[in-house]
Amino acid sequence: MASDHSSLNSQTKFLHQNSDLEQQATLEVETKDFDYSKRSQWLRAAVLGANDGLVSTASLMMGVGAVKQDIKVMILTGFAGLVAGACSMAIGEFVSVYSQLDIEVAQLKRDKERGNERHREEDDNKEKESLPNPLQAAAASALAFSVGAMVPLLAASFIRDYKVRLGVVLGAVSFALLVFGWLGAVLGKAPALRSCVRVLVGGWLAMAITFGLTKLIGSSAL
């Protein structure tokens, strides 16, 4: 009897171990098969907003810094760029996502009419949850833009020397561009190096063009 009991226990343990291994394998497969494209909508808005805030605000500050060395002028320009850009991003994203919402709602109504079926309440709730949220998208875009815009503002706020201030702003923005490029690549499972280089070079070009053209116009006394 004792041998039968120990044999039964060993079989039970073996079954539990097999069950745990199967659950672990299932979780690994689900993790590997995760569709990262589902992140594309909010990831696009977040990365675009933060990168926009960083590059546009830094470019404005560098452009003004090309003709005005006063720190107060540079900070006010950056702050105005932050507020205006965040509002613009929020409104643009709200209008865009609301248009998408109208299209998807109209399509759902057409599908119901064609099918001549009665949808259950659970199905209707799932469909509503899957629809885009304009207010959420607008808030996320404005917040992301503000986060990006704060980088050059904070970098320039406490440095009085003109040349040092420009150098610190350029360094801080370059570092932030690399971080945003890397973060976007990691979250979207894209090549990190290519993303970082693309974002960094794009930001440098925007700042250089703004600085150069503003300097040219300022020196020509137009």
Automatic annotation (TrEMBL):
Cellular compartments per GO CC: vacuolar membrane
Gene Ontology biological-process entries: intracellular manganese ion homeostasis
Major location category of this protein: membrane
Q: What subcellular locations does the record give?
A: Vacuole membrane
Q: Does the keyword Iron apply?
A: yes
Record Pfam families: VIT1
Q: Does the keyword Lipid metabolism apply?
A: no
Regions crossing the membrane:
42-61, 73-91, 137-159, 166-187, 199-218
Q: Where is this region: Disordered?
A: 111-132
Keywords from the UniProt entry? Ion transport, Iron, Iron transport, Membrane, Transmembrane, Transmembrane helix, Transport, Vacuole
Which molecular-function annotations from GO does this UniProt entry contain?
iron ion sequestering activity; iron ion transmembrane transporter activity; manganese ion transmembrane transporter activity
Regions of biased composition (Basic and acidic residues) lie at 111-130
Q: Which reaction does it catalyse?
A: Fe(2+)(in) = Fe(2+)(out)
In the bilayer, the protein is annotated as: Multi-pass membrane protein
Biological function: Vacuolar Fe(2+) uptake transporter.
Q: Which family does it belong to?
A: Belongs to the CCC1 family.
Query: Under what name is this protein listed?
Result: Vacuolar iron transporter
Organism, per UniProt?
Abrus precatorius (Indian licorice)
The gene is LOC113873377
